[in-house]
Amino acid sequence: MKIVCQNKKAYHEYHIDAKFEAGMVLTGPEVKSLRAGKANMRDGYVQIDDRGELKMFNVHISQYSYATHNPNEPMRARKLLMHKREIKKLIGKLQEKGLALIPLKIYFIENGKAKVELGLARGKKQYDKRATLKQRDSDRDIQRVMRRGSLGS
């Protein structure tokens, strides 16, 4: 599995309740651009339209520089592919207040297909963000002390 890009900001801004995998409908130059690692999904989000299809918005996939015809629109809405029963389950979950569906990472699987990992997310409050940062700093300090202790003996 080759990871193209990750939405690191999502883990800071949201509690991720569940993760799902979806395929993406892409054009040829978009696939080439993803293979080159030219994607940004910082402000991306996913919505379910009235026909029951998943659409991903605000994910920037740069234009492939060597494409001579049919250049892609970098910020276009991209259709995502999931089984119908999974989409129905997501619709039920998204009816709850405060839940959103956001892309977490884009990657390629063994057979060369591009996939996106979606997270069912609940927004964090400001004090949750501070607590997460404090916990991460204390874990880092503990690891630093343990490394020094094991190297010194």
Structural notes for this entry:
By secondary structure, the chain is α+β, with helices and mostly antiparallel strands. The chain has one domain (2-124): Small Protein B, Chain: A (Beta Barrel). It contains four helices and nine strands; from the N terminus they run βαβαβββββαββα. The protein has helices spanning 8-13, 28-35, 84-94, 126-152, and strands at 2-6, 14-24, 39-40, 45-48, 54-57, 60-61, 78-81, 99-108, 114-123.
Shape: globular
Distance between the first and last residues' Cα: 39 Å
Total helices: the number is: 4
| Widest sheet: strand ordering | 1-8-9-2-7-5-4
Largest sheet data = 7 strands, antiparallel
Keywords:
single chain, 153 residues, alpha+beta, Small Protein B, Chain: A, 7-stranded antiparallel β-sheet, two-stranded antiparallel sheet, 4 helices, 34% strand, globular
Summarize the structure.
The protein has 153 residues and is an alpha+beta fold. Helices cover 34% and strands 34% of the residues.
Secondary structure layout:
Elements: E1 2-6, H1 8-13, E2 14-24, H2 28-35, E3 39-40, E4 45-48, E5 54-57, E6 60-61, E7 78-81, H3 84-94, E8 99-108, E9 114-123, H4 126-152
Antiparallel strand pairs: 1-8, 2-7, 2-9, 3-6, 4-5, 5-7, 8-9
